[in-house]
Sequence to fold (117 residues):
Amino acid sequence: MEQNNLLTQSDICLIQPSEQYQHEIMDFREEFLRNHETAYGTEQLTDAVSFEEWLKNVQRNEKKETAENGRPPSYEFMAIRKSDRRIVGMINVRYDLTEEMYRYLGHIGYCVRKSER
Fold:
C-alpha cells in the first residue's frame, strides 16, 4: 500500500494556471458549484464572473504592488495528475503576510475536488 501512495504522489505536478487550462479549470469550478462547496485557495474561482477575470486576478495578486487591497501577494498552482491531466486540487501560496494574516490566514490555502477525495 505504501508503494501505491508513492506512485500517486509522483503522478501529481504543480502548474500555474494559464489560458491553456481554461476548460479544465472551469470544469474544476463547476464540480465545486454542483456540490455547493467553497473552493478555498483558488483566488475565489467559484465567485468569478469569467475565466478571463479570474486569471487576471490570479496574475495581479502575484505581486505586492498589484495585489488586491488587503490581501497578501500569492501564487496559485493547480495540482494536476500527469497521467490524465486532470486537476485534482488547487493550492494558493501566500507570502509577505502581516502578523494578523499569519495567525488567521496562513501561508497556504488549498482544496481538493470532491471526486478526488
Residues 12-116 form one domain. The longest strand covers residues 86-94. Residues 86 and 109 are 19 Å apart (CA to CA). The chain has a mean pLDDT of 91.
